[in-house]
Every structure is written in C-alpha cells, then in structure tokens.
UniProtKB/TrEMBL annotation:
Residues 455-564 form the Peptidase M1 alanyl aminopeptidase Ig-like fold domain. Keywords: Aminopeptidase, Hydrolase, Metal-binding, Metalloprotease, Protease, Zinc. Belongs to the peptidase M1 family. The gene is pepN. Aminopeptidase N is involved in the degradation of intracellular peptides generated by protein breakdown during normal growth as well as in response to nutrient starvation. GO terms for biological process: proteolysis. It comes from Paraburkholderia domus. The lineage of its organism: Bacteria, Pseudomonadati, Pseudomonadota, Betaproteobacteria, Burkholderiales. This is Aminopeptidase N. Residues 92-190 form the Aminopeptidase N-like N-terminal domain.
Length: 898
C-alpha cells in the first residue's frame, strides 16, 4: 500500500497494550440537541501488562472540554487538544470525572451522538465513542457501563441504553430520567443510547434454560405496522443460536431500534441493536422478497454478534474479521437453515449461490484493485474504510473453510473451545484459528496465510485418464496470476485449500471415489482434497470410465478455478451435476464465456451472433419442471455487467452492455413462448405469502417478465407489466413491473405506461421513505438510451424535493445506484458520469466522510478500463484528490492514484 504517500498510517505490527485500563464507566447525559452535556466518571488504573506512562492520553473529537476531577478534586493537569485530552502525571489508580459538551444537532457524520428525525441516536463503531466523551476508545479496553439519561419528557418520552433498566422517573421542569446498567464488560464501540418519540412491538419469549426475555422492536409510531417480520426474525435467531451453537441470550431484555439516517446496515450494540430502517421495516406492500430476506439476515447477523463480537471481541481493529467474517458466516448458515433446514441441499444452494455471486462480483473486484488487503489488514489510514467485502465476505469464506475441513461437528467443537478460552476477552484471529486447530487436533499453521495474503487465488486444473490402469489423475496448481500490486506484496506461499471434487459418469451420475492408497471407495461421492502445495496431483483409482470432473463443489474455497471445459461439457454439467451449486456454476461459465466473446466482438464492431446450442441449454433449464423456481431464476440470470467487464483484459462497459443485451434479446425472442408460459404458470394469486416457495415463484415469473420486456415488439410485455403493476398486492411484483416498463420503454425514449406507473408509484408511497428510495433507484439504474441518457434523469432527480444528500439511504438510492449499478450509463464516453461523481464525492465529503468514501470507491478500478475511460476517470480522481478534506476519502483516492 502507498503508505509513504499517506500520513498517519496505523500498522498492525505497532500494536501495544494500553497503558491504562478503565474498569467502570458511569455516564450522565443531559440531552439537548445543540448542546448535550456529558459527565463521565471512570475507575482508571495502570495496566500491569503495559510499559509505564506518566500521562493518560484519552481520545476525544469535536468535544468542548469543561472540567476534569480526580478522586473528587479538580485536576489542573488536563490539556484538551484536537485529538483528545492529555492528563499529566496521574496516580496509579483513581476515579476520574470528565465533563464535556457536544452538538448532536449539527452532527451530519452520523458517527457519535446525533439527531435524526428529532430523536437522539448513537453510532460508536469503530471510533465514534470519542465524539461523545473522552475515553480510551479502543476495543481492548473493556468496562462495565452505567448510563443515566435526562431529557425533556414531552420531546423524548423514551430513553434507552444498553443492558437492564434500573430506574426511571420525573425531574423538575418537564424533564425525566432513566438509568441503565449493562452487567457485561464491553469496549466503548458497543455503547449506545436512543432517546425520542418511539413505540415498540414487544414479545416475551423463554430462552433455552427457561428464563423469560423481553424483546422489543422500537420504531416511529407510523411504522409499527412494519415490525412483525423483524420480530419474527429475532425470535428465529435466538432459537437458531441455541440449537446450532448452544449459545443463549445473556440479557433479560433485547432491543432493536430503527433509524432512517444511518451509515451502514445495522450495529450490534450490547442489548440495544440500532438498525437502518431498511433492515427492519417491512410489510408486503412496501418491501420486496429480497428486503424480507435481507432483514432476516441482518437481524440474525446483529443478534449473533452478541456472542461473536460482544462476549468475545477484537483486540484491535486489524482483527475486525474475527467478529465480522465469523458473524457473516453465522448469518449465512442461519438463512440457509431457515430456507432449507440442514438437509434440503437444493434450498440451501440457493442461498449459497446468492452469497457467492456477491463475493465474486464485489470482493474479487476489491482484491484486484488498489484497496486489495488481506482478511486481516496490515495497515490502514481510516478504519472505517476497512469494513470491506474482504473483511466480511472473504472473511466468512475463510471461516466456512474450517467447517468444510472439520465438518459441522468439528466446527462446533472449535467454537465451544473458543468460547471456553476467550469469553469476556478481546482477542485475535490467531486465537480463533488456534481454538479450531486444537479442538480438532490439527496443525493449521499454513492456514494462517488466508488471513495474511491478499488477492484472489487461482487454481488451474489438469486431468488425465488412463483407461488401461483405470486411473484418473487431477493435478491442481495454485497461484495468484498477475495480482494487483497491493495484493502482490502480501503473497508468500501456497495456501491450504479445501478443494471439493466429484467425478461424473457418462450417464450423469456420480462415480464412487477411491484415492490411490485407500483400501476402498468412500461413502460420499464428493471428496474434499487437502490441497496444500503449489502443485499437487491426486489420483483416483478404479475409475472404469473417463469421468467429467465437478470442481470446487459448493464453492469450497474462495478461489478462481481454471479448467478447459468444452461448451458441451458445461451443458452436460448444467443438466446433470448432483451438486446444485456446480449446476448453476456450469451455466454461468457457459454464459460468461459466450458473453465475453461477444463483448470482444462488440468492442471492435464485429456483428454479434449466438450459437443455438447456448439457447438450447438455457431453454432446457427454463422448461425443467424438476428444478425449483428459485434455482431456475438464478440459473437464467446472466452474469452482471460489472462482473463481465471485470473479466475483460480492458473493461469496456459499453461493449459488455451491448453483448449482454444482445443475448437477452436473443433469449427473449427465441424462447418467447416458454417465457410466456413460465410467466403464467408462476403467478401467485391470492394473499401474499413470504415463504421461500412463494418468493421463488415470484422471482422466476418476474425474470420472465424482464426477458419479455426485451422482445423486439414489447407490446405484449407492456400489457402484462401494466396489468401486473395495477393488480399487485405486494412490492416485489409492483417494482418488478415498474422496472420492466422502464426498460421496455428505453428503446423508444420513454413510454406513457412507464411514466404513468412512475407517477403513480410516487403518489402511492410518498409517505414511505424506503419505497421512495426504490423510486429513485429504479430510475437511476434504468437502461436509458441515446435519446435519453440516464445522467440527465439523475441530474433532474437531484433537484427533486424528496432528494436529500444528508440522508445516506437517499444518497445511495440515486447517486450510488447510478455510479455503481448502472455501468453502461455511468461510463459514458463523454465523461459526464465521472464529472457528476466528482461533484457528489466532494459535496458528501463535507457532510459525511464515511458515505463519501464509499462513493469514492466506485472509480478505484480505473486503470483496468479502456484508454478513453481511463483518462476521464483519472481526471475526476485528481479533481477529488485536490479538494477533499476528510481522511476517509483521501485514503481512497490517494491509493487509487498511487
Ligand atoms: N458492526 C456492524 C456490523 O457489521 C457494522 C458497522 C461498523 C457499522 N461500523 C458501522 C454500522 C458504522 C453503522 C455505522 O454489524
Ligand atoms: Zn457485523
């Protein structure tokens, strides 16, 4: 990484334990929007395990220092500065009280204490607590917290903080108070408070050991009708963690609060999770099936953090994946179990495919650019920039590999040992690996490289069949290809790759597997090979016919597999592989290969054509009634434009778009009757049901509609979509219909039906911010046309009264959707997209650096594009680099330009 160009680099190698520890914290808040007074009383002592320091250095930002006392007496040796408070020559142990003032009303960063919709909220991870009070704001300082909140009773009738409510009551002058105590020691990043006009859906449930628990989902009063699904998801999460990991809820009360101004998805504050409204509020009229699934996943994720993150936390922020990778893995398994139980492999595969698609499209891209970093980074400038796809999604794959190596039971044994050893501690990724290794009696030293090496590994496969000897040898070779410089410097040696493989016979069924040296074939027809060397050959014996290999089943490791399948072989795998993930994978490989060939032709102006055999392979999936609708939908969805552009030697979004549209049109026209039949067959009349089956039908039906909208004559699709829009009793069908109308209209520069539906959608949902976000996003991601470039529509929408740059969801719905999810329009040759991007990054930088830095990342792969686009992107990056103020955005653009 370009450390030398960037000041203030924090390095993992520089970790040192804190010179002081804080055992207890008593916080008192007088909550006033423009001027909140915070009194913070701490018991402080020297850390016996650290070297001596005479000064106590507390972190603090954007605080007005008022006073400090030590053991009740005024302390004059306190010096407030830009980064905090220095207390000189302090005793070995003492009680320290600090009073300071902050301004939540003016806090647009949404980090620390802020006001949203007239209510108070906090966000402390990673380093927001220092914006509330002076503190040792680092995760290895753990204390028990008592919190007293005082505020106007009329304006802030509800006062919440972590843990258990000790007492509440009235105060003079229309004020009231509440006092909370969290019995568990925690780092400051898990602190939270909420105050305002909120109401709760409540449930009482008994946990595994029979204790009664109060569960609450707090929202603004008009949203109470959208809380049921979040509550059900919470109850399911509690049950699941008990059943799968033996982990029980440790508090008497567990609260979720929804807030509409929020930087990310949600936050796992102890006992008081704070959520983006997007991941709480849902009813069939306002939320899509995807929204329902996301809410279940995020509610699960935050709840599971109670053990993986809160009871056992991170020693330092380089260990972030210790909690995030593990917790993503847990939420993925939760969702898979909810969809398919432990045994319905086809239903589980649906979830797996969706997760892998995200990993490949987003994390592989991250690993190929200037922000490439290991799952456990070596350095950072701004930690908020490292809440990344690598830490979360690749981190989850790394955890999944332990389970692939040891099985579910072995993984559980490792988790049990991890909690036995580390409950109540702040630990490292190494501690986790050691627990897994020790519980399973295995040396995992080599596995450490998954934490320290960046870049996406490539495994190339060669096979050889010896008919006379009935031997089939599989040679695996691993490397990183020509990795990005940021990744290359971390790469030291081969990884331990659990490589799952099956062999498929001529009739499409699995062959039994016996490796050389084994006395008999194993029971399972999938084998996980321990692939540990740069190159390694595995030989199967008693192989009576030449098999077709099914490689990396269920995506057993986060790698790219290179193997020279013929198109016929891929079509065969698509039809027969017993591993549902690899069935999908075969279709994707087939489509990717065709699409990249076509994109190459489009880039050079050669006419496009598509082989009938590809159409036939898709037709078979479309009409195969033995496959579940949700699987068919996934298999028939072409790889995204972003993923395809990534695979080109020089990314050319226009050529990718032309190729993909060509194939979509070809599939639409060639299979018109089948699409229509599928559309009719998978309608879900009657009351809305949120089950996986019903949502699978809707997904397939709406995919059919989107293909029909590509027909040369879209009249029929427009009729169907309009009728679907008008009749819809749920948001999945309504938004899919609107999207089909917009895209069918693109070729003609717009249509009356599309405009009418857009207007109706706005009027109908004017009072539902999350739905208006969809209204913006649908327009920002629409196809557009030469007569009607989307940038013009986006520019106009920026001036819409409902647009608000300060609200991250709204900014994402319009700006991010356009810059990151509409590549063909964003990467216009005239550079209009890049100019827009630069203006918005700069504007956001002054409001909310965390959000600005996310947007800044949408140009980081600029070097991989065609020369014209590259020049335009570089100019835009340089403009931003010359104007931004925040450390967050600076780190991103400097790394991109380095
Ligand atoms: N720890 C949170 C999660 O993954 C994410 C998070 C980190 C976050 N920093 C944040 C959320 C800032 C909101 C704002 O569950
Ligand atoms: Zn998390």
């Amino acid at each position: 990484m370009a450390d030398t160009a960037t000041p203030n680099v924090i390095r993992r190698a520089d970790y040192a334990p804190p010179a002081f520890l804080i055992d207890t914290v008593a916080l008192e808040f007088d909550l006033v929007p423009e001027r909140t007074v915070v009194r913070n009383t701490m018991r402080v002592r020297r850390n016996p395990d650290a070297s001596h320091a005479s000064n106590l250095e507390l972190m603090g930002e954007q605080l007005e220092f008022v006073s400090a006392t030590i053991d009740g007496a005024p302390f004059d040796n306190a010096h407030a500065h830009e980064h905090g408070l220095t207390l000189s020559n302090v005793p070995d142990h003492f009680e320290l009280t600090i009073t300071s003032i902050c301004n939540p009303a003016e806090n647009t960063t949404l980090s620390g204490l802020y006001v949203s919709g007239g209510n108070f909220f906090t966000q402390c991870e990673a380093e927001g607590f220092r914006r509330i009070t002076y503190f040792l704001d680092r995760p290895d300082v753990m204390a028990t917290f008592t919190v007293t909140l005082r505020a106007s009773k009329a304006d802030y009738p509800v006062l919440l903080s972590n843990g258990n409510l000790l007492e509440e009551g009235d105060l003079p002058d229309g004020r009231h108070f509440a006092r909370w105590e969290d019995p568990f020691r925690k780092p400051s990043y898990l602190f939270a408070l909420v105050a305002g006009k909120l109401v709760a859906l409540e449930e009482r449930v008994k946990s595994g050991s029979g204790k009664e628990k109060l569960l609450q989902v707090w929202v603004e009063p008009h949203d109470l009708d959208k809380t049921r699904h979040a509550m059900d998801s919470l109850i399911n999460s509690i049950r699941w963690d008990e059943a799968r990991f033996g982990l029980e809820l440790d508090l008497d009360r567990f609260m979720i609060v929804a807030v509409s101004d929020f930087n990310m998805g949600a936050m796992e504050n102890k006992g008081l999770n704070i959520f983006n409204t997007k991941y709480v509020l849902a009813n069939p009229e306002t939320a899509t099936d995807t929204d329902f699934a996301n809410i279940e996943a995020v509610v699960g994720h935050e709840y599971f953090h109670n053990w993986t993150g809160n009871r056992v936390t991170c020693r330092d922020w380089f260990q972030l994946s210790l909690k995030e990778g593990l917790t993503v893995f847990r939420d993925q398994e939760f969702s898979a179990d909810m969809a398919g139980g432990a045994t319905d492999e086809a239903a589980r595969a649906t979830k797996r495919i969706e997760d892998v698609r995200v990993l490949r499209q987003m994390q592989f891209a991250e690993d190929a650019g200037p922000m490439a970093h290991p799952v456990r980074p070596e350095s950072y400038v701004e930690i908020n920039n490292f809440y990344t796809m690598t830490v979360y999604e690749k981190g989850s794959e790394v955890v999944r590999m332990y389970q692939t190596l040891f099985g579910r039971d072995g993984f559980r044994k490792g988790m049990d040992l991890y909690f036995k050893r580390h409950d109540g501690q702040a630990v490292t990724c190494d501690d986790f690996r050691h627990a897994l290794a020790d519980a399973n009696g295995r040396d995992l030293a080599q596995f450490e490289r998954w934490y320290s090496q960046a870049g996406t590994p490539r495994v190339s496969v060669r096979t050889r069949y010896d008919a006379a000897q009935q031997r089939y040898s599989v040679t695996l070779a691993q490397g990183y290809g020509d990795a990005a410089p940021a990744a290359r410097e971390t790469q030291k040696g081969p990884l331990l790759i659990p490589f799952a493989i099956g062999l498929i016979g001529k009739d499409g069924s699995d062959l039994s597997l016996q490796l050389e040296g084994e006395t008999r074939a194993s029971d399972s027809t999938t084998r996980v090979l321990d692939f540990t060397q740069t190159e390694q050959t595995f030989t199967f014996v008693n192989v009576a016919q030449e098999p077709l290999p099914s490689l990396l089943r269920n995506f057993s490791a986060p790698v790219i597999v290179e193997y020279d399948y013929s198109a016929d072989q891929l079509a065969f795998l698509l039809a027969h592989d017993s591993d549902p993930f690899n069935r999908w994978e075969a279709g994707q490989r087939l489509a990717t290969r065709e699409l990249l060939t076509l994109a190459g032709r489009a880039a050079t102006g050669v006419p496009l054509q598509l082989d009938d055999s590809v159409v036939a392979a898709f037709a078979r999936v479309l009409t195969d009634e033995t496959l579940s609708p949700s699987f068919r939908e996934l298999a028939l969805m072409l790889p995204s434009e972003a993923y395809l552009a990534e695979q080109m030697a020089e990314s050319n979004p226009a050529a990718v778009h032309a190729a993909r549209q060509f194939v979509r049109k070809r599939l639409a026209n060639a299979l018109r009757k089948d699409w229509l039949a599928v559309y009719e067959k998978h309608r879900t009349p009657g009351a809305y049901e949120a089950t996986p089956e019903a949502s699978g039908h809707r997904a397939l039906k709406n995919l059919a509609l989107s293909y029909l909208a590509e027909l040369d004559d879209p009249a029929e699709a427009v009729r169907l979509a309009s009728a679907q829009y008008d009749a819809a009793n749920n948001m999945t069908d309504r938004s899919a219909a609107l999207s089909a109308l917009l895209n069918a209209a693109a070729a003609n520069g717009g249509s009356i039906e599309a405009q009418q539906a857009l207007d109706d959608f706005y009027r109908r949902f004017e009072k539902e911010p999350l739905v208006i976000d969809k209204w913006f996003a649908l327009q920002a991601t629409q196809r557009g046309s030469a007569q009607r470039p989307v940038i013009e529509i986006v520019r106009k929408l920026m001036a819409h009264p409902a647009f608000n740059l300060k609200n991250p969801n709204r900014a994402r719905s319009l700006i991010f959707s356009f810059c990151a999810a509409n590549p063909a329009q964003f990467h216009a040759e005239d550079g209009s997209g890049y100019a827009f991007w630069a203006d918005q990054v700069i504007a956001l930088d002054a409001i909310n650096p965390q959000v600005a830095a996310r947007l800044a990342r949408s140009l980081e792969l600029w070097r991989r594009f065609t020369p014209t686009l590259r020049d335009g992107m570089r100019a835009a990056l340089e403009k931003v680099a010359s104007q931004v103020k925040s450390r967050d955005v600076r780190e991103i653009v400097e790394k991109a330009l380095a």
